Amino acid sequence: MTAATALLETALMLAAHGIPPMPLRAGKVPFGNCPDCTRNACGGRPNMKTPGPCACPHPCHGWAAATTDPRILSSVTWAPAWRHAATVAYHPGGAGVTVVDLDDPAAVQWAREALPATRTVTTTRGEHWIYRGAMPSSNAVRPGVDIKSLMAYARWLGNGIGSTAALPDAVRALAVKEPSTARRAPQALTVPLRARGGECRHRSPVYLDRGIGMAVQRITEARSAIHATVYRTFLAVLSTHGGCGCLTDAHVARLFTAAQAKGESPRHCTDAWTNALTTLGL
Asked: What is the pTM assigned to this prediction?
């Protein structure tokens, strides 16, 4: 069996299990654009938001070339890629999983202390921790830690060991650019946190109601980066209304309800609100 045949058989095995594979060159680099698609002359896939081949169907668009279609994987047009490939990669988001890529022993030790146990795959320098569920990818979320899921690829290094746990909030929070610690301790509340009272600058409750309505709409219409959207929305509301007495628990409850309807946990709502208060010095 040739190396190309072995790689193709691995790819077909992955595809049969619903994991979209793709060939990688040496150095973990995806194959470049085919002649017909140099500099994306073909336009690529619409929005590049779904796994699968481009129209060629050469594997010329990085992670978006990953596919579970065995006819394309074993097609004549893909044969040169497999002949020159060094390994097989896959699109984690297309498989419905998230890979926490831990690049060194220090990152692995941090994960063991901070993250729930899950399926683990040994890599050259560290480990891949694989969770069930997809999310936006993000590099360098902390020293030695990358998140690979939607619109990204990861090397296939085997099944690993352990059971695949559900994607935890702790991993989703890593991709959110907000203060990592708050000067206030998190509070377990049955009602949302209320901002500090002060002189109200708003002459009409209509202004506040309109602002809360727009904030709820922003959260409700978010299609990605939900946690970041919730935090930024909370920050915007507090920057306008946080310093006076017009913001009530009922208003904040509307924001928390909208966030939780998008999948945010009560604890993350409280943490995001607390971090927003701290950022603004309220």
From this structure: 0.59
